[in-house]
Amino acid sequence: MPMGKEHLFCRHYLLLFSFLIIMCLLQSGFGSYQDEQSPVNDYHHPQYQPHDHKGLVMVMRRFSRAHPPQPSPRIVNVDRYGAKANGRDDSQAFKKAWRAACLASNGAVLVVPRNKIYHLKPLIFSGPCKSTLTFKIYGTIKAWVKQSEYRERRHWLRFDNVHNLRVTGGGIINGNGRKWWLNSCKINKKLVCLIKNAVTFYECSNLIVSNIWFQNSQKMHISFQSCLYVKALNLVVTAPENSPNTDGIHVTGTRNICLIRTGIELGDDCISIVSGSKNVRATGITCGPGHGISIGSLGADNSEAYVSNVEVTNSKLTGTTNGVRIKTWQQGGSGFAKNIIFHNIEMKNVTNPIIIDQNYCDQDDPCPQQASAVKVSNVLYRNIKGTSASKVAINFDCSETVPCQGILLQDVAIASKHEEPTKASCANVILDTRGDVFPYCFNN
Ligand SMILES: *[C@@H]1O[C@H](CO)[C@@H](O)[C@H](O)[C@H]1NC(C)=O
């Protein structure tokens, strides 16, 4: 890369960085208002018992703060609306409680008491609400297991068009997914694909999701769909390693979102970022087992896809099938994935630590090579260290017709778990390096 261009390239990232950092700071500001109110002093945060995910639960530590005087928000306890937590369906009580909280004009706190397990059928929590709303989950919310209750619904819990919402409390949202996994079309090809996401936020804005343990989702655990200004932090997301399609956090059509200090162990992508997403920052993520952190897949069924300004930093992946991946479908599509930074990432025994796969084909019929593709450009990999479980630690498998451009590797060192050194495989990529980079493709 000539000097002038290189300068521009770096400056571009500096700008992007400042933007993302300012964005996260602004959001912390807007987020603190509810923290400081802390209107439910008489409730305590549950103590987590020792369990398999001890390390992950460390991230759920929370601080309490004093609260300044202001009009007190309405406290709506689901138990007062008839929730029993006795193994029967509590959906109606939650529906009524939500309605009451949503109509409150000085803010509301919807309380799900601790040490209890509430079972819910598919539910939509609709907005917009009259004022700010905090959903305090201290106890456990568990999905109704009978699949016939879901019918054509694509979701279990869905927050629709809610603004200034905070979901927090230190409790558990359990998708009760085992039955869904057994009936997954991914595993049994004869079955229809009817699996559901656990929690979807749809067209929400100014949203904070924090201090919740998401478990055993039917499909994706948390999906942010067409949302604006989102902060998700101190979450724990767990499902078995062999559970199909149980993505951790799915970001689609969402702009200005920060994912912070979250531990994820499950059977699919820890984080997946797909079309329409812009200004996405993930930091302090631990991932594994799972399929890693993915941008894509993009361009399925010849669709247009646009993803830009993504930063993944200060994260650690252990034993995952992919590390940081960008994947676009082989059978065409258009649009772009650009301005992406992966930096300060530690990989341990990751099968494909760094991968761009533009020949992705996840269907029974072969995907024919097409002339069009989603264009991948301006991707920086910086300070990425660790070990690869496979020989090919860096794999750029880009489109022949739309090559990857502006790919920069800086201070990358990925060793092999085995005796032979790791390799890089590079096809149709315009690539540059800074600092020490290993492995590197010399044929490029
Ligand atoms: C490393 O990863 C491979 C492939 O996923 C797995 O078979 C192996 O057990 C892992 N090794 C360690 C030490 O975790």
UniProtKB/TrEMBL annotation:
The entry's family comment says:
Belongs to the glycosyl hydrolase 28 family.
Q: Does the keyword Signal apply?
A: yes
User: Where found, per UniProt?
Assistant: Secreted, Cell wall
Q: Name one GO biological process term.
A: cell wall modification involved in abscission
EC number, as in UniProt? 3.2.1.15
Q: Which InterPro entries match?
A: Glyco_hydro_28, PbH1, Pectin_lyas_fold, Pectin_lyase_fold/virulence
Does the keyword Hydrolase belong to this entry? yes
Look up the domain of life of the source: Eukaryota
- State the reactions this protein catalyses: (1,4-alpha-D-galacturonosyl)n+m + H2O = (1,4-alpha-D-galacturonosyl)n + (1,4-alpha-D-galacturonosyl)m
Q: Which SUPFAM superfamilies match?
A: Pectin lyase-like (SSF51126)
Please name the top-level EC class of this enzyme: hydrolase
Mind telling me what this protein is named?
A: endo-polygalacturonase
Catalytic center residues = 291
